[in-house]
Amino acid sequence: MAASRGARRLIVVALLCVLGLAAWYGRTGWADSGPFVLVLFGIPVVCTAVALWVEGTSRTMLAPAVVAALAVVSLSWALLTALGIGLVLVAPSVLLLLAALASWLHRTGRDTAAPPRA
């Protein structure tokens, strides 16, 4: 089964959000936390990049599960660092969860936005 276009779009938007947030808050985070800012934004960047890779390459039902697991890791990290700047990372994590749902719906044939199968 082909990868879900909707899921890939959501993951790309999540990745762009994380990169944009890193660019926006990077200088402030570096002044506050030093090199830890690389870890702060690095974990969500890696989660979204791996989710994009898995969604694009996997043809099995394992892809939505992996994307969902990465979304949970990213969301947990955002909530763990919520006292600092990490709360802004919740939005990209939720986008990953929605991508996992879109991928699952597409792969099970329940995606109403997808063209009908021949």
What does this entry look like structurally?
It is a single chain. It contains 4 helices and no strands. The radius of gyration is 15 Å and the shape is elongated. The chain has helices at residues 5-33, 36-57, 62-80, 90-107. The chain has one domain.
Key features of this structure:
118 residues; mainly alpha
Helix content: over 70%
Give the overall shape, derived from the CA principal axes: elongated
How many helices? Answer: 4
Given helix and strand content, the structural type is mainly alpha
Number of domains: 1
Number of strands: 0
The rounded Rg comes to: 15 Å
Report how far the terminal alpha carbons are from each other. 13 Å
Largest sheet, in brief, is: none
- Averaging pLDDT over every residue, what do you get? 90
Residue stretches low in confidence (pLDDT < 50, at least 5 long) are none
- Content of β-strand: under 5%
Order of helices and strands: HHHH
How are the SSEs ordered, and which strands pair?
Elements: H1 5-33, H2 36-57, H3 62-80, H4 90-107
